[in-house]
Amino acid sequence: MIPELTLAVLLAGAISLGLNRVMLELAPRWGLMDQPGERRIHAKAIPRAGGIAIWLTFLLVIGGGLATGWLHESGSLSWQWLAAFAAGSAVLMVAGFFDDRTGLSPWVKLGAHILAPTVFLLIYPIHFTIFPNGWPWIFHYATFVVWCVLLINAFNLIDGLDGLCGGLAAVATLAMAGLAIASHRTDSAMLLMVMGATILGFLKFNLNPARIFLGDAGSMLIGFFLATAATDAVGRKAVVGMILLPIAVAGVPLLDVLLAIWRRSARQFLRSLRGEKIEGGIFAADSDHLHHRLLNGGGSQHKVALILQGIAILLATLAFLPLMFGDRMYAVSLVGLLIVAMVGVKNLARVEIEHTGSVIHMAIKLPGHRRRVAATLFIYDLLVLTGAGIAAVIIETNRLTRGDDIEHLVRFVMVFVVLGSLTLLAQRVHQQLWVRATMRDIITLQFWLLVAALVTFTLFTLIYVSLEWSALRLCLMSYIFACGGVCLPRVALDLLREFGMDARLITPKRGSHGGYGPVVIFGAGDLGTLLLNHLKSSAHDAYPGLRILGFIDEKKVLHGRRLRALRILGGLDLVPHLVQTQGLKGIILAISEPPQVLLDQLDALADQHQLKIYRWNAAVEEM
């Protein structure tokens, strides 16, 4: 198999190089040119026909190998699979060709995304791995289509920088090929290695500064190939198919598409609350993708592409650990992925959290919405209490295999839900304004849930004396689960607003113009804290363009510490450095009675560096 694999890879790389060079000449004649624009990074028109070269190369190498006999049919390396892939991908290539040339509506493209996997399944029927073979075909079909649509859109949306989409695809195909070889799935390894070599040939012309782009046809083709080839590469393990496989194949692109759906949905809902006209919905293009954010942070195209590809390699490694070294590595993978997720949310999801916090804040403030929020919280609490009781029953009875009387357990859940709901209603927790909740409010909520659990235990043991210890364990577990679930949205409301303030006011955004711009707050005392509280509760557009870099204070003992989420950077001597490195535009003076010497220093700095000085007046809450 090694000679055939080596020959196929070398041939795919050579043909890809040649066809991509040909496309440089043909693309302008076919009208496949990516023109510069507001959302484009390049400054001149560039051909976008790399996807056509990749598609033709792959079909030529695999089809030619099977036709001449130097590639032997085995598993997915067969005429049937190739015919299914060629037919399904042809749908995407046609749609992508016209989209690259004249543009297509999002609904037409979505139709092509659904049609492509449908055609594939008609020719090459497979059972998607998350359902047993005995399940109706509609479950396999629907899951496979959703899987394909997700990956197609993920790679389509991430294709915004030179070498980014192709580099991520190369990482995914080569990682899966290595896993396929380790799993002795030589048929899948051949398909993946050939596609990987084909993409590497394209990358020769796509690395910064790019001479050719994938185009929508190419990015959709890559997503479709990975969706159809990934399942066979890793075998039929349900856990991998449900959780680890998407992360390994397309962790970074999938994160980008999920953030885009979240961000655009929040913006749409926010506009509807404001009564503004809604255009485009979740299909509306924006410039807040992962690569845009890293570019705004000061990175070059080459650096940003390397960062995202490095993250993709890390995710693929974590996801494939259990497959390479056995089930004992699941814990390592889970902990690693959780750490990556927490770091990612903190640094990459600030825009989405900001919009979500704004939606919640406005929904609560609008007339009539308070009642809707209260009704929603009540329904949510009912579901949480029910889920907590059921979870406790499942754990206590070892997944209902211990032989307990199911009727008694159902009654326990009903009693716990009724008493818990009545307790929460009596305390009017659904009418409380939780965005201003204190720790005392949270503790009080937990106390009354504990009262409901203890009353449930008392009633249950009076009826079923023999179940005393079992009832105690059930009540304690139900209380613990209910506490977490019921308190979560109450705490999350304020956390979202805190994160929203971080995203809107704290995170510096280079290259932004207009408004206040990057500023520092002079005075890390009580007045500075009041200023942060005011900014936290202010309207989204009250201080346009305001970006707070941190505090400055002349007390050296405070330097390096934090006030709320902001760092105390240093003293006034740091101002020239901030002007040069962070584009500092102003200083907000948060001292009640500043001495004249300080005011003279600030005036001198303002004149020297063209800075604006703002005075924070806590009495009228303005500056």
Describe the structure in your own words:
Residues 508-513 have low confidence and may be disordered. The protein folds into 3 domains: 2-348, no CATH class; 367-505, no CATH class; 518-615, Rossmann fold (3-Layer(aba) Sandwich). The chain has 623 residues and is mostly helical. The strands form 2 sheets. The chain has a 6-stranded mixed beta sheet. It has a two-stranded antiparallel ribbon with strand order 1-2. Helices cover 68% and strands 5% of the residues. Helix 3 (79-101) runs antiparallel to helix 4. 41% of the residues are buried.
What characterizes the major β-sheet? 6 strands, mixed
Q: Helix tally?
A: 20
Question: Would you tell me the structural class of the helices and strands?
Answer: mainly alpha
- Kindly report how far apart the N and C termini lie: 73 Å
Strand content: under 5%
Percent of residues in helices: 55-70%
Order of strands across the widest beta sheet?
Answer: 5-6-4-3-7-8
User: Would you tell me the overall average pLDDT?
Assistant: 78
- Contiguous low-pLDDT stretches (5 residues minimum) are 508-513
- Our count of domains comes out at 3
